[in-house]
Amino acid sequence: MTMRIGQGFDVHAFGDNIPLVIGGVKIPFYKGLIGHSDADVLLHAICDCLLGAASLRDIGYHFSDKDPQFRGVSSRKLVLEVHHKIKNEGFDIVNLDCTVILEKPKIASFIPDMVQNISEVLEIDSNQINIKAKTSEKLGYLGRGEGVAAQTICLLKKR
Fold first, then answer.
1. Which residue pairs from 12-17 have beta carbons closer than 8 angstroms and sit at least 24 positions apart in sequence?
2. How far apart are alpha carbons 45 and 152 in whole angstroms?
3. Are 46 and 54 in contact (CB under 8 A)?
4. In sequence order, which residues have a C-beta less than 8 Å from that of residue 87 and are 6 or more positions away?
5. What φ, ψ does residue 140 adopt, rounded to 5°?
6. Residues 125-144: pLDDT tens digits?
7. If exposure means fewest CB atoms within 10 Å of the residue's CB, which of 39, 46, 96, 97 is most exposed?
């Protein structure tokens, strides 16, 4: 059986008058993330992680920020399309491990809903997904509250 590991990373800056969406969950906060789509940093990192493990390039290759059809799109749609791509290559997801890095807002209470959203889109059990929330201890651009980053790792198995 062939196993493949992938890793993903994404970062977005905060901006005013934008909803904050992380892991497909709208989080009450006075700022949101700036991006071409809904700027869901966690779902973007998951897309890169899965695409990388399947050797299918990266999110920008498949969903260009120059393409108007992706303007404001829900990142859940992007994850769904990535899921179809890896399935077509004969891969199934073994697990995802994710870290969201931000000082504020505190998102721990939203993690169960994030896991549920991701498990539904990827058609996997919630126990195959782990999400952690971390701060950067007030260091760097994340510590100053300028944005949010996400790191992900996955394991895929070939059918």
1. 12/39, 12/41, 12/44, 12/147, 12/148, 13/146, 13/147, 14/145, 14/146, 14/147, 14/148
2. 6
3. no
4. none
5. 70, -170
6. 999 999 999 999 999 999 99
7. 97
